[in-house]
Each structure stands twice: as structure tokens, then as C-alpha cells.
Amino acid sequence: MSKKTKVILTILCLAIAFMDISGLPGVLLKVNIADVDEYIIPLMINFIIIGIVAIVVLKLFKVTYNFGFSVNGLSEGLKRYAKPGIAAGVLSFAAFFIGLFPFDYKPTIWKILIEGILYYVGVGIVEEFYVRGLFLNIVEEFADRKNNKTEIAVIVSAVIFGLGHIPGMLGMGIGVILFKVISTIGMGFYFGTIYKKTGNLWVPVIMHSFIDICALPYCFTQNMRYETISLIILVITYAALAVYCCNLLFNKKPEQK
Question: Whole-prediction pTM value?
Fold first, then answer.
């Protein structure tokens, strides 16, 4: 990666991170559909704007860096690394279900489809692009002289990924924030590891979207709380996932095919 490319991708990464965390400019719009949260559609519009910005910048500056948006290695990558993520997603669903039961709201199909599924597909694509496709690769390039540059990049990107979710949790108790950050860092380890192991960005995009969609129980309640039991299950689940990923990262033995 040339110095010019590093600068362009770093600026693009920071710009997308700001747009994603702040929700700007999408949140300036007001779009209401049935009982879908009023901020969901604007945030989805923001995802489209982010995509347009990324394409324009990459085309304008003729950046040809391979981020891994390819079908090559996708099927094999999912076969090899999806199972732990699927297990984590199912346990997350169980944690949310247990914590929120009994449910007090009957959503429309629009809320389930848009807020519970489509929105999280957008989250998976956007966050994996700028956190793993951009930030992780940039860190790895800057650590180029280190023998463990990939491990450093995965760890740093995972920690930043976790801390980057704090703005969306402001107002919650410190314990909830701490537990959520730890869980999100564990997710970050997983997404970063399977990305570098496969070289295919669609693998973490798919797993990220799946795990987020497992928060579907929140569409069936008006109380957006996090019960202690749910937090404990989440922390244990994603701490275990992080340990699994550390073993993959630091184990230099050739993998069995």
C-alpha cells in the first residue's frame, strides 16, 4: 500500500466512522413507516450515503486496494469459520429472550423486516467495510515491520470496535456499558480473525449481520433494558469466542483442510 493510498483510506475511514457514529446526515431526515423506530430509516439512508461517498472517493483517487469483496473463498470461509459465530448468535438470541420475557408488544411485519433484519444487514456491511476493510488493514500496514502485524491489527481494531459502541450506550448504567463493550470487543476479535484468515470481507459481513439480527427479540418489547442474566450470557459467549479467535490467530501451525 503506497503512502498516498494510506492517507486516502485513513481519511475515508475517519469520515465514515464519523457518519456512522453520529448518524449524519441521515438523521436530519424524518421518515416514518408503521411502527418502525423513527431513526431506523434515516440511518439506513445514511448507509447508502456512506456507500456513495466510499465509491466516489475510491474512484476519484483511483484506489485499487483489494478489500476482499469477492465470491472467491466465501463458501469455504463460511464452512470453516461460521459455526462459532452461529453458536454465539443463537446464545445471544437466548440471552435477549430470557432477559426480555414476557414480551409486551406485538410488532407489525414492517418493524420486524426493516428494524429487525434489513437495518442490521446494512450495519454489517458498513461496519465491516470501515472497521475491518479500512481500519484493520490500515493498522496492519502501519505495523508492517512487526512480525505479528496481523495480530496487532486484529486486536487494535477489535478494541476500537468495542469502544466505538459507547456513544450508542450513553445513559445506560456503567455496568451495562462495561459488559456490552467487553462483548463487542469479543465480536470484533471474531470478525477480524475470520476476515484475515479468509481474505474475504463478505465472511465477517454475513456473520456480523447474522449476530446482530439475533437481537430480534427487541422488536417484541417496549422496554429496551438489559437484564443481568442477559449481560452475563453475552460476556461469557463473546469472551469464549475471543479465546477461540486468539487460538486461531497465534497458532502458526498450518490449518487442516
Answer: 0.94
